[in-house]
Design a protein that fits this description.
Elements (H helix, E strand, L loop, with lengths): L2 E3 L1 H7 L2 H16 L3 E2 L4 E5 L2 E10 L4 E9 L6 E7 L4 E7 L1 H19 L6 E5 L3 H13 L5 E5 L3 H11 L2 E2 L2 H5 L3 E4 L18 E4 L12 H6 E6 L2 H7 L10 E2 L12 E5 L4 H17 L2
Parallel strand pairs: 1-7, 8-9, 8-11, 9-10, 11-12, 12-15, 13-14, 13-15
Antiparallel strand pairs: 2-4, 3-4, 4-5, 5-6, 6-7
Helix pairs in contact: 2-3, 2-9, 3-4, 3-9
Length: 290
């Protein structure tokens, strides 16, 4: 019988460490050519957008999709998994928290591969759920991090976020001068300026996934010696931050940074392959308890 797994189930069965294991394995399968991950399809809704993200992961044994409706009243997310072997519906998984954790997991993997080994400061632009997930995931992935500086436009939200996550409120330039800098905002204009970046910085940009929005100014791209993303094809359609960048690598092909003083950038748009992998991990964990 197909499973229906709720947000509470995901919270219990997919801790951040498990999400990272699932996403890292997914990247390995992508590198081996075992995954078909077409780009996201969007359709307009009154006041919002409906999106479908399909994927086939032959090694994992699932075909499926992530889908969501971005509406003024909220944004429900679902992942649907079909068993390739049995030709059956395996599970429907509520996927708001799952999306947060798989995105943060991918960023943590990027940071492990790209950040300097001695990176000790983390800067975060944003005070939302993705920002919170990234603080947790990056602290775990980068043991040398001992300070987390955060900036967002709302002073009350910033104070509450820092109290809840043991972070320091900071000015934008100070956040931008950290060893690892995350932009996790809904901004349409740049929040991170390249002049703030220090040699050896790693930038992880996860917001602004349409061509008309940007979190990074031109100077960030001008100073970046190395740029990678999750899918070049999807980035060409969605990442205004990477418009005009000629050479873009993909995370599944990246092992480590070239030089310690290089500024490197990972732009994340999010892959359905990660959602399938994370949802499959939730299903496996649930079935193991029966």
């Amino acid at each position: 019988m197909p499973l229906y797994l709720t947000e509470d189930d995901v919270a219990e069965l997919l801790p951040p460490a498990a999400a990272r294991v699932a996403v890292e394995a997914s990247l390995g399968r992508i590198a081996r050519g075992a995954v078909d991950n077409p780009t996201r399809v969007r359709s307009e809704l009154p006041g919002g957008v409906f999106a479908v993200m399909p994927c086939v992961d032959r090694e994992l044994g699932y075909a499926g999709l992530k889908t969501y409706a971005w509406l003024p009243g909220g944004t429900p997310f679902l992942v649907v998994l079909f068993s390739i072997e049995r030709a059956e519906l395996e599970a429907v998984v509520e996927a708001d928290l799952l999306g947060q954790r798989r995105t943060a997991a991918a960023s943590a993997i990027a940071a492990q591969r790209l950040a300097r080994r001695d990176a000790s400061t983390l800067g975060v632009f944003g005070c939302g759920r993705q920002a919170a997930s990234h603080v947790v995931a990056l602290r775990d992935a980068l043991p040398a991090v001992n300070r987390v500086l955060v900036h967002c436009r709302d002073a009350e939200r910033l104070a509450a976020f820092c109290a809840a996550h043991d972070c320091e409120p900071a000015a934008p330039a100070d956040v931008g001068a950290c060893d690892v800098v995350v932009t996790a905002t809904t901004a349409t204009r740049p929040v991170l300026h390249g002049e703030w970046l220090q040699p050896g910085a790693t930038v992880i940009a996860i917001g602004a996934n349409d061509l008309g929005s940007r979190e990074l100014d031109d100077e960030v791209l001008a100073r970046a010696a190395f740029v990678c993303t999750d899918s070049v094809e999807q980035a060409r359609q969605e990442a205004g931050d990477l418009a005009g960048v000629a050479v873009i690598h993909e995370l599944h092909d990246v092992d480590a940074r070239a030089r310690d003083d290089d500024i490197v950038l990972f732009k994340s748009n999010g892959l359905a392959a990660w959602d399938l992998a994370a949802a499959a991990a939730v299903v496996t964990a649930r079935r193991a308890r029966r």
